[in-house]
Design goal:
globular
Length: about 160
C-alpha cells in the first residue's frame, strides 16, 4: 500500500471513529482535548461536531491553517508530554490523540508516557480516540465502527 493510501485510510478511520462517538461525548460533561493539532483539520472537525464545547489543542509548534487555529486561551504550545501534564484532572469528555510518527522506535518512547497521561486527563466515563494503542488499567477498549480495520485506530473509555 502506498503512503498516500495509508494516510487516506487513517484519516477516514479517524473521521469515522470521531463521528461514531459523537453522541457518547455529547452526553458527557467536560472539555475536549486535541493532542496533536497539526494542520488543524481534526480540530475543525471537532468544533463542528461540538460547537458548544471548549476544545483545547496541544502541539509542539503552531503549524495549522489560519481558519483552524484555536483561540489563544485554548491553544497550548510546547512538548505535549510536559504541557498536558498541567491539565491532569481536567475531567475531559474526550481526548483525541494523533501524535504517532509511523516510526516504531519513536512511538515506543511516546507510549511510555501517553497512556497514563490520557487516563489522567479524562473524566470517569470519558472517551479517548487514538492513532496509537494505549494500554492502561483505567482504559477499557470500546468497539470501533464495523468498517474500521482493527489496529487502524483505537477507542477507549476511562473506567472509574
Amino acid at each position: 500500500m502506498s503512503r498516500l493510501d495509508s494516510f487516506i485510510r487513517r484519516m477516514t478511520a479517524q473521521r469515522d471513529v470521531l463521528n461514531h462517538i459523537g453522541d457518547m461525548v455529547k452526553e458527557l460533561e467536560g472539555p475536549v482535548l486535541e493532542l496533536g493539532l497539526g494542520n488543524g483539520r481534526t480540530f475543525d472537525h471537532l468544533r463542528t461536531h461540538f460547537p458548544e464545547r471548549r476544545i483545547i489543542a496541544f502541539d509542539r509548534a503552531l503549524a495549522c491553517h489560519k481558519s483552524s487555529t484555536p483561540d489563544k486561551e485554548d491553544l497550548v504550545i510546547g512538548e505535549i508530554r510536559d504541557t498536558a501534564q498541567q491539565f491532569t484532572g481536567i475531567n475531559a469528555a474526550l481526548v483525541h490523540v494523533d501524535i504517532g510518527t509511523g516510526y516504531e522506535e519513536k512511538d515506543a518512547v511516546t507510549l511510555t508516557w501517553l497512556p497514563q497521561l490520557a487516563a489522567a486527563l479524562l473524566a470517569p466515563g470519558g472517551i479517548v480516540a487514538s492513532g496509537l494503542e494505549l494500554n492502561h488499567s483505567q482504559l477499557e477498549n470500546l468497539p470501533l465502527p464495523h468498517h474500521v480495520k482493527k489496529g487502524r485506530y483505537f477507542l477507549y473509555r476511562r473506567i472509574e
